[in-house]
Design a protein that fits this description.
2 copies of one chain form a homodimer.
Chain A (H helix, E strand, L loop, with lengths): L7 H8 L3 H9 L6 H14 L5 H8 L4 E6 L5 H11 L2 H4 L2 E6 L4 H13 L4 E4 L6 H6 L4 E4 L7 E5 L1 H14 L4 E6 L9 H14 L3 E5 L6 H18 L5 E4 L3 H15 L6 E7 L2 H5 L5 E4 L2 H19 L12 E4 L2 E3 L6
Parallel strand pairs in A: 1-2, 1-3, 3-4, 4-5, 5-11, 6-7, 6-8, 8-9, 9-10
Antiparallel strand pairs in A: 10-12
Helix pairs in contact in A: 1-2, 5-14, 9-10, 11-12
Chain lengths: ~350, ~350
């Protein structure tokens, strides 16, 4: 602990290189021959050199830090996106400062201020408490994922395509009535596309359909109660008809599935069911459930690429800001399991 | 962007306070009256002051950064622990650099070296690729969770107590034979206590029992195949007897539950089932499943307290290192649902 810090001068003296050469080793190693890189690397080991990156940051302003703001880690979708983003460390070397916002807008704002004070290079934002207009005003590279994104670069699943896929599959299953359950979301939120895709297919083919747009609650118990009431109403209203239900996510699809299987001992033939996300619960459920899968690995990789693009631009001598935010769309993948034929 | 940075002198001049007072506002605000704190806060807004924390770190060596090393975010247990640790930001103000190691030992070691170069203040380690002896050699405050911990401070669930609770519940359910499925883990790993607790109860009460210690595989499909074979063997070997099965976690308990319900149309009376963790799947399964719940909120809070204790000690003028690593034990909570009576 009490050991004197090794400086560039010490390394220069030890190796016989100039201080400029040592500096180049750290900031632009490719400008040295492999042989000279090895000589310096050996010297660092011999001298037990410990790099002080904080001093480097102060010198060149590059922290290699990226902030990630995420609503929660309870929903499997978020933890999987986070997992994939963190795994890009091996590719890009960026280290991630992660914040879980739990809908606390002021805490999130305070956290962002702190990140800016630490001179982070960019942010990936999945939480939806702060508007894209405010995020853009912070004037650092940002990519948002599956949230309102008018003023920020973003990567989203093609939710409209997902709605089309789900409704088409249910239609091809010979359903008499198609039902889509979802929250009453704003058209500004990407997930709204699911409702629109579902509706467009139904209208195009003249399929009888019903939209049930209601907040299902934020806990499993709350959602279970709501879905039980929806199930009872549908069973009474469409008795004898084959009901094709498109649920907003796999967790809620599983609630409906369990209600059906507990009531009938098996998955009844007058129902078809499609979820969204391809969460583990969709394959681990009592009846493996059809779902619209999000390509989370692609989504995370594209988000990071879009962020790196912006961060690299900032490092140029004359950075050219983007004229318009870039919005990337990732196609979903329909996964057919046992709740459709 | 081209705006001149505001310095302490500027703030002092604007408010009429001394530079020392301004410095105290940032480093020890409670030493000022609320009124004076407000005056300075107003001045910061008026001057559009942006704190440069990197400069502060270089001055006082306090980064307020903590590293978290986690094996993966696929298992709900890990994402919940991470969620709880990240939520302590509001309490302690520490920012977390998160790394998912995915069993890549060398990448993890490289990441730790980077964190040390950034002068992080401490680490919380859940991954198990690097020995506690090596972790301790890095000479920064560390707390490990649910992994080998001979040389590091740690917080673990009382796994032995969990094994006792599960076996006792199955015994009280009138089971003729008790079965515990688990990996063949080393006695150095905390989870080994589950096997021991289960065995001790069985031996104490002379209950017939069987340990099935085998690696169930690292994917759901792989585990499903293994558990199907275990289920078929048990059904044949103990026909007509009531089988009390203690599974190593809720995901694997759910696989067995689904096999049973798909075969018999309901949860059969000659089975009882207990999982471990109280993951969402245990309550969202087709039959809500009894489980030994880990108190993840307590676990995360105690881990952070133990880390803060060590980090604060380092900030003293003459820090006194711990003579022995501290190991904290959190009791589990038995949760009875419909797979036991």
């Amino acid at each position: 602990m009490a050991k004197k810090n090794i400086t560039f001068s010490d390394i220069a003296q030890y190796t016989g290189f100039s201080k400029t050469t040592i500096s180049r080793y750290f900031n632009n190693p490719d400008s040295l021959t492999l042989e000279n890189q090895q000589k310096i690397a050996d010297a660092l080991t011999a001298l037990d050199y410990k790099e002080n990156k904080v001093a480097r940051i102060l010198a060149n302003g590059k922290t290699e830090f990226v902030g990630i703001l995420i609503p929660n880690l309870y929903l499997h979708y978020y933890s999987q996106v986070l997992n994939q983003i963190l795994s890009t460390y091996e590719t890009y070397g960026y280290k991630f400062l992660v914040f879980v916002c739990n809908d606390k807008e002021e805490t999130e704002r305070q956290y962002i201020r702190e990140l800016l004070a630490y001179q982070i290079e960019g942010m990936i934002v999945l939480s939806h408490t702060i508007s894209s207009e405010e995020l853009a005003s912070y004037d650092i590279p940002i990519v948002t994922i599956e949230r309102e994104d008018r003023y920020t670069c973003s990567v989203n699943t093609d939710n409209y395509m997902g709605g089309l896929q789900a409704a088409s599959l249910l239609y091809k299953n010979g359903c008499d009535i198609l039902i889509h359950v979802n929250a009453d979301i704003s058209p500004e939120v990407p997930a709204y596309g699911r409702i629109q895709g579902f509706q467009d297919i139904c209208q195009e083919h003249g399929i009888p359909h019903e939209l049930i747009l209601t907040h299902l609650g934020s806990s499993y118990a709350e959602a279970s109660g709501h879905i039980l009431r929806i199930f009872e109403a549908l069973a009474a209203k469409y008795e004898g008809k084959r009901k094709g239900v498109f649920m907003p996510n796999d967790t809620h699809a599983n609630v409906l599935l369990n209600l059906l299987v507990r009531k009938y001992g098996t998955f009844p033939d007058d129902y078809r069911l499609v979820g969204f996300d391809n969460s583990p619960i969709s394959s681990e459920a009592i009846i493996p459930t059809s779902t619209v899968g999000q390509q989370i690995d692609t989504l995370a990789r594209e988000a990071m690429e879009l962020l790196v693009l912006q961060m690299n631009e900032r490092k140029k001598r004359r950075p050219v800001p983007l004229e318009q935010p870039i919005h990337k769309i990732i196609p979903p993948v329909l996964i057919r399991r046992e709740t459709t034929r």
